[in-house]
């Protein structure tokens, strides 16, 4: 396959969001019998409008196969992977690994990457830890909510969405090449 990771163009944005929602929904449906919308479009829009946001579309042989949204802090280089997805039907072909490796190359000044995934998403946990080199550094739940907002990960007591009952936070500290003179 001929892979490319390109900046998301405006014409593809709606389909990108739909494909991302479908991919996230599939993982939740595999775990829970009945679940409401896992990833509202408003969450994707929030990510896309965050300062430093860059959205990428993964293309293989001319067809969209996934994508990612990263938040880049040029000053601190402590960057965040908000979303990474592979379209339903094309998983387990190395696309996720291609997306991540390309993001690392594109943002080689990054000191630390951070991301989160639900506690039950074993494929995601395997991918981030064993394939990408992240480390689990925190577990958000009703006893230890995410610091951003009490219900950002569905950890408030009124949460009815089982998908966000607990989230792992991952970090990957990047080795910086030292130049010896």
UniProtKB/TrEMBL annotation:
Coiled coil: none annotated. GO terms for molecular function: acyltransferase activity, transferring groups other than amino-acyl groups. Pfam families: Acetyltransf_1. Keywords: Transferase. Residues 18-158 form the N-acetyltransferase domain. Gene3D superfamilies: 3.40.630.30. This is GNAT family N-acetyltransferase. It comes from Extibacter muris.
């Amino acid at each position: 396959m001929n892979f490319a990771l390109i900046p998301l163009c405006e014409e593809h944005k709606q389909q990108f969001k739909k494909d991302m929602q479908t991919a996230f929904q599939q993982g939740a449906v595999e775990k829970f019998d009945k679940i409401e919308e896992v990833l509202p479009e408003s969450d994707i829009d929030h990510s896309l409008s965050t300062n430093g946001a860059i959205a990428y579309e993964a293309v293989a042989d001319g067809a969209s196969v996934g994508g990612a949204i990263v938040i880049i802090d040029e000053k601190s280089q402590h960057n965040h992977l908000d979303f990474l997805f592979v379209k339903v039907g094309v998983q387990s072909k190395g696309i996720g690994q291609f997306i991540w490796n390309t993001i690392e190359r594109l943002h080689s000044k990054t000191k630390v990457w951070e991301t989160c995934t639900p506690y039950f998403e074993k494929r995601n946990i395997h991918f981030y830890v064993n394939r990408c080199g992240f480390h689990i550094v925190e577990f958000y739940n009703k006893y230890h909510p995410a610091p951003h907002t009490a219900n950002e990960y569905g950890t408030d007591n009124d949460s009815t969405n089982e998908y966000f009952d607990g989230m792992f936070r991952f970090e990957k500290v990047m080795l910086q090449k030292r130049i010896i003179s």
